Amino acid sequence: MTLPGIDGDPGEGDPSGIRSFADQFSTRASSLTARAVSARAGLTALGPLESEAVDALRPRIVAVAAKLDDASAAATEVAGILDGYATALDGIRARAAAAIAHAHDTYGRIYERRAEALNAASEFVTGWALGWDDVLPSWMYLSDHSYLVRWQGAIDDYIDARSAFHSLQSERDELDRQTAASLSGISLFSELTSSKGSGATLAAASLWAGDVAGLTADDLAALGDPDLIRQVWNGMEDEQRAALIAAAPLVIGNLDGIPIRDRVAANKINIENEIARREAEIEKIEQQRDDAVDRSYYGDQGVAAPYDGRIAEHEAFIEYYRSLLAQKVTWQDENRVTHVDDGARVVVFDPRIDAIATYQGPIDPQTGDIPSWVRHVAVSVPGTGTTMTDFADSRGRDLYAAAGPDSAIFQWAGGEFPGTIPEATQSSYANALAPRLRDFAAGISVPENGTLTVLGHSYGGATVGLAERDGLKADRILYVSAAGMGSGVGGLDDFPNTKDVPHYSLMARNDLVVGLIQGTGPGDMHGQSALTADGVTRLETGFVTSGDASTGGLEDYNVAGNGTPPAIDAHGTVFKVGTGAFDNIVGVITGGEVELFAPDQTIIAGRSVITIDGIDRDDYSPTYAGVE
Description:
- The chain is an alpha/beta fold.
- The chain is 47% helix and 12% strand.
């Protein structure tokens, strides 16, 4: 069960593995000390000898012995630090397990108290509008108010339990930071930990110890820094990389910093494993169904239906996963030669958290990553209703085809998205997705002369904004029909790394899906509206091109108004190929030319106020600007 506001595990890691590294450093220290002693013994043997060569050799031997002593002392210090780290981690692991168990208990109690307070009819009428942390207002409740008190008390208990869990995460972060700082201060070790973050502690220690060949997938993941992960991965032999993919595909296929080609190879295994798992589940359900039918007095009349429904659900997943494996991917190389590959480029696949992402574009045959000649890289984040089998993969294909051969597009859905409008009003999904998006973007190997654009549609816009607040790095940001810039976000100043990069937004004027919730401040449902935020350039949504020169290249199919397409459709039609909105999205990705928003005109006629869409004004003339 997913607990709101709780993500990650403060106790993750392998204390026994850390202690084994500490033992390696202790052994290394003993070896270095023995070598220093041997060097000094050689110096003693030279004592009675006198010659120019011997005199020149003596200081060199002294220097070597001193360096060996320094290295031995450093190895001993590292061993002590790692031992202490493992001991502290043992304690955090135990307390984290207890804290998460307590959080599960208290969260379950919320719904027990809620059920005590609400009867079935009340739950049906009002329950759908209540979040997990909402209590029915006392003025609406006609029964004993003590039920409401107990209900609120259960919510408060969960909030306290969640805070206790968060404090452990803070304690773990501080432990990692202090350990990394201690290791960084040690001579000969600082190069590997400098600027790599506290997550580099364990694996960087193994690298310094010369034990790269012994790294496991979990050790590699513990590096934390995508740049260091890529550096270590690329330094391995092909056989070691293949062995890690085969041994731990779920880790490697979802590890930021691993090159695209190897993530795709690992996720092919993951998809095949998930198909096999679901096929096995179908066999179990079929047996359960047959047993239930046999036990039923009425035979299979109605008894089999629930089982058949579960089977159909598994079959739908299997069908989609097989379509991924069979998908044809078209791309062009540097010479504009078209290639067609078998199998989708799945760069994220983790059914445990409903995460999936695909890649459209070329792959360098040497590095297995984005080629150096690619200039435009983008990550597209979808919105409400996104699932592992419906995450707008075709949108990535459309964007790649329109952006051109020197582009590379990721369609990313790195976790669970809200499935309904009431769920979409909650920020908990975006809060969980945001750090994953930040880390995924950090793991992309953007070419030296390339740019990275991150764009979010609908709920994905709020996710992008929270990722920016969490430290996302990108060259351009685009909010497409965004629900907002993220709960609690007041504007660009809230973004530590992207506040000074170009930001763009667009939304159809008659968008009724998120258009009605656009606010102006951080107190609103999903924070500041991207349409009115200072420093964000709003773009026009425009028309659908007809391709008919006799009509001037434009049809009367206006995404921004005139009631066509219908208001609900307008929310997604901005991605329709050929619309002015879609062309503007591509223009932002490629750094091309975009059409700026045409302000609406307000006319007061007597007691009536009439608004004329900017592109329907008599004096309308497109205003274009180059993307920064």
